[in-house]
Amino acid sequence: MLATDLDGTFIPLPDRADNQTALETFRQARAQNRLGLVFATGRHFESVLAALRQHALPEPDWIVCDVGTSIYRRAGAGFESYAPFETLLAAQTRGADRAAVEALLGDVDGLTLQAPEHQQRFKISYDSTANAAERLAALANRRLQEAGLPYVCLASIDPFNPHGLLDVLPTGASKAAALIWLATHADFAPDEVVFAGDSGNDFAALTCGFRAIVVANAPAELADEARCELARRGLERRLFQATLPATSGVLEGCRRFGLVSA
């Protein structure tokens, strides 16, 4: 089962013919039922569907979106929200809804709520300047902790239009947590998963114990930090640093781990 980030990872980069060739290999593997596929992305559900159409991506079995706070499964010709996961997050947040988070952070200078289509029941998303993202995330986390709200703020930088992206999620929520939970509730197991990523919000999934691929266009420090974390636990052999970018790097890693034949 390949679980992969989309932007900068599985989606081909512009003007990279090798990425398009790699994507065709994945399409063929899916058509021949030789590969299970999960998209694990910070995108919201409608944006994932748009990417499927725009880039002619192979349809996944599952979509983990909104930075691990929503799961959809393929159902017939479309996808449906996976209700057991919503029930889990509702229990974890103990009834504290997004309105409580918005009220708590509403007066933080430099935080701007993103557009409604980027908001979800268990994900409250903000924009900031790039250089203020980490500072504002730290401030938000102090307020959340002091208020006793079971949420945490994560910061990243948009790779396409460099500015800060801050997501307030239920404590413990992440792509990794959602994938691990899914692997105990779906028809695959954690040891079957190969995860591919390229950015900081992939770190937990890269280091949680899955076999993992860091594509060549990822920041050098991401691979270094992931390798150090896995080495500390004796799992360094589970990480593959691709020599090729994006889709080609994902294919390179899948071949390395035997998920896709040469």
Observed structural traits:
single chain, 262 residues, alpha/beta, Rossmann fold, Hypothetical Protein Ta0175, Chain: A, domain 2, 8-stranded mixed beta sheet, 12 strands, 39% helix, globular
Identify the overall geometry.
globular
Biggest β-sheet: count, sense, barrel? 8 strands, mixed
Question: How many helix segments?
Answer: 10
CATH class of the largest domain: Alpha Beta
Q: Helix proportion of residues, in percent? A: 25-40%
- Quaternary organisation: single chain
Number of strands: 12
Elements, N to C (H/E): EHHEHEEEHHEEHEEHEHEHEH
Output the CATH homologous superfamily of the largest domain.
Answer: HAD superfamily/HAD-like
Alpha-carbon distance between the two ends: 17 Å
Overview of the molecule:
There is one protein chain. The chain folds into two domains: 150 residues, Rossmann fold (3-Layer(aba) Sandwich), CATH 3.40.50.1000; 77 residues, Hypothetical Protein Ta0175, Chain: A, domain 2. It has ten helices and twelve strands. The protein has an eight-stranded mixed sheet, sandwiched between helices. It has a four-stranded antiparallel sheet with strand order 6-7-9-8.
Could you outline the blueprint of secondary structure elements for this entry?
Blueprint (H helix, E strand, L loop, with lengths): L1 E3 L1 H5 L6 H15 L5 E4 L4 H11 L6 E4 L4 E6 L2 E4 L1 H10 L5 H8 L6 E2 L10 E5 L4 H15 L3 E7 L6 E7 L4 H9 L10 E4 L5 H5 L3 E4 L5 H13 L6 E3 L4 H11 L6
Parallel strand pairs: 1-2, 1-10, 2-3, 10-11, 11-12
Antiparallel strand pairs: 3-4, 4-5, 6-7, 7-9, 8-9
Helix pairs in contact: 2-10
